[in-house]
Amino acid sequence: MSDLQKKWAKAKFNAMEFNELDEDRENADGSSGGGGGGGGSFMPDDDDSSSASSMSSTGTVIPSPARALFARPRGFPGGRSLDPIPWTTYFERELFLPSPTSPGTTHHAYLTSPVSAGPLFVMHHGAGSSGLSFAVLSAEIRKRLPTAGILAPDARGHGSTTTTTSDKSPDLSLPTLSADLLSIILLTQKEMGWPTLPPIILVGHSLGGAVVVDLACSNTLPQPQSQSLLGYAVLDVVEGSAMDALQSMQTYLSTRPKGFVSLREGIEWHVRSRTLRNSVSARTSVPALLVEEGTGGGDKGARKWRWRTDLGATQPFWEGWFVGLSGKFLRGKGGKMLLLAGTDRLDTELTIGQMQGKYALQVFPEAGHFIHEDLPEKTAIALVDFYRRNDRSALVLPPKVSELLAQGKRV
Amino acid sequence: MSDLDNAIAQLRACRPIPEAQVRELCHKARELLIEEGNVVTVNAPVTICGDIHGQFHDLMELFRVGGDVPDTNYLFMGDFVDRGFYSLESFLLLLCLKVRYPDRMTLIRGNHESRQITTVYGFYDECLRKYGSANVWRYCCDVFDYLALGAIVLGASNTLSPNSEAGSAAREVEEDTEIEVCNADGDIMSQFSRLEGGASRLLDPVGSAMRPSATATNGIGGAADSSRNSGLGGAGAPSRTGPPGSGASGSSGGTVGNPAGAVLCVHGGLSPLIDTVDKIRLLDRKQEVPHEGAMCDLLWSDPDEIDGWGLSPRGAGFLFGADIVKVFNHRNDLSLIARAHQLVMEGFKEMFDASIVTVWSAPNYCYRCGNVAALLELSEDSSGLGILSRTNGDVNRSDGGVGGPRGVLMENDLAGLRSGPARRYRVFQAAPQDSRGMPAKKPVADYFL
């Protein structure tokens, strides 16, 4: 852990001038597993309270003395702010992009443009989530890679994307979502007047992972745009374990509250139930998940904040999202990274692929399913490192033997 | 019976030894390992094994198939821990055997012998579960830092020794056999001879173990081809012949380099920063595995069907092609590189005209991958020529390093392929399921959309 942390600390201190969000992140460090900010990076190697232990998934890790110097209040956010944080804190603009293929559909996306030759991270959220799921992560990425751009769209039936049918059951099949993502990328290029697409890293969480893998694998990005795809990263979704989990999904969904009295209550529920383990992330992303219904009157205690997306109704699409995901993940071109919240989530195909060295795997046992919201810093470090490794403009490999021979060198 | 022998007996029964004893063992092991160079010299005969990954019962099966310590001289190429449920017992047993029989047991470091990796992939949690504290994990990690990075096998013979496991009918091994693949009971599944032009003979893999004369003609094409398609993984698959493992034909077309040259064993592979074996010797190895640099590459890199060097999808190390391996072997007077690190469904895989081989020793990896495992036996060269022709890393050291014609890889070196050391692969399957207590499966995550 220490090497990674040192590297990260270096990156952090180099990026000190980009901490414009610090006032909003006051308590982020405290509740993220990477806790203690800089303190963690100077821990000796043998510190057994290291945040890498999966024991800490219960959140009861006792800070070591070294860490306590920097530690902020953690745990349940008693007395702390649960106020929503607006998206403008994180993104440069929002885009409303009318779909050319399906009239009446307007895609909504959050964008921070890349600077000069910086890469564009295109991030697709999971089912029931929204583009703001990546807001805190995007800030962390830009701290470490200030030239990076972030494009985080809302999928159909999620966030502020609108469809004509505006009924409760939009078409959420994988081909549709994958085509949507492609057209959003191209529409964004047009809207922003970019002559060419910047180098792209696709990032997908859960269902979004299936979408980006499908896009990367289908080679539908037209030439020369397909050249710009450097790689793709998938957050906490694996075909085998996702299919297993589907059986219990309706049961899980039935345990969720049907609605909340206020946004604050919604945020509090996400933090208290440990669905999201970082209150700043929750304050940022939860408001987009809920929609106020029946504003006219009603008694005060009514749970008028309802889920924007009826996940139960999306059940017909579930299997289609995940079938064949592992194979496609391994088949696609470009760098591949899988971020998981536990090694036991790998299925057989990906276990073999991992041991054959076909992709990079990072595991954050202390995170929940929403890795990027629970541990935005660590996820950002992993993604930025992933980009740097796959950045073709910077890649210099040692010469080939045939080249050496051609130069008349003895080998 | 000494304490050590008691500890070995207890660990063989898959029971952990007390923390105090682990501490003492690790201390002794460190004293022993600190004396070893980064590249340990091992004399043939030797049995080379790949990844174990805490699959204790399969390690026992390995010892059954390969022979027990100290009767067999073992070289383990790292990745003892993580993923399996008995990393602790597996590693401590190997370490006990190392301390008890230092000359019959060689352990080199794999990428999983690292603090960072073990905290994520199971060894740390296992120590915590079995001892209630991380002390034992810490002792083991201190030992990891002292493990050698590679080994050089000297004096490997061009002919196989008689197959001692092959039942009652101990056959004479024919002089020209280069590769022999046996199953767990020592029955020969296939055989490849180093005839002119790489033509090979293959025994009928099923049921003919006791009929060595039953030289079948099927599969010759596949094996002869393999000098071009570099062995097992080849798409042309006529080399797949019978039970798992026998498809692993290997290439008997011969090897570039000194026929009696040494065999370099390393967990991952080569590094662009390492062009001679001596450069490995210069590394400061007593540290956590770094994220980049020569030491990292040796433990992380993979061979691949590319030209030159490539980016490793793993996120650490490099990919390297046939040209890199052949030049390295030639420059260092090696006949073969043996490495582990990659799961091979057939247990072993020879690549690049048999200049490099991957050996994988964890059958049914993670208790679900369905692969077989293998170990590689190199026999002793009774003529002694193998040792004499060894120049210990540098070509032409005897002529002051100026380098005569032999210091340069000539075009005709590639044409006139010569044979590497004779290799016997023993392929084995996972130990029976009922012999292990499987910890309960973790519940699946409840939210996954």
Helix/strand/pairing category of chain A: alpha/beta
Provide the number of structural domains of chain B: 1
Share of helix of chain B, binned: 25-40%
CATH topology of the largest domain in chain A: Rossmann fold
| Beta strand count of chain A | 11
The chain-level structural class of chain B is alpha/beta
CATH homologous superfamily assignment of the largest domain in chain A = Alpha/Beta hydrolase fold, catalytic domain
Provide the domain count of chain A: 2
| Cα end-to-end separation of chain A | 38 Å
Which two chains touch over the largest interface? A-B, 67 and 59 residues
For the record, the CATH architecture of chain B stands as 4-Layer Sandwich
* Assembly of the depicted chains: heterodimer
CATH class of chain B: Alpha Beta
Quantity of strands of chain B, as a count: 18
3D architecture notes:
The complex is a heterodimer of chains A (411) and B (449). Chain A has helices at 2-14, 28-31, 65-68, 135-144, 174-192, 207-218, 239-246, 249-255, 263-272, 279-285, 315-322, 325-331, 348-355, 371-374, 376-390, 401-406, and strands spanning 93-98, 106-112, 120-124, 149-154, 200-205, 229-235, 259-260, 290-292, 305-307, 335-340, 360-363. Chain A is α/β, with parallel strands linked by helices. Chain A has two domains: 3-42, no CATH class; 87-394, Rossmann fold. In chain A, helix 4 (135-144) crosses helix 15 (376-390). Chain B is of the alpha/beta class and 449 residues long. In chain B, 26% of the residues lie in helices and 17% in strands. In chain B, the strands form four sheets. Chain B has a seven-stranded mixed β-sheet, covered by helices on one side. In chain B, helix 3 (56-66) links the parallel strand 2 and strand 3 (74-76). In chain B, helix 1 (3-12) runs antiparallel to helix 4 (87-100). The termini of chain B are far apart.
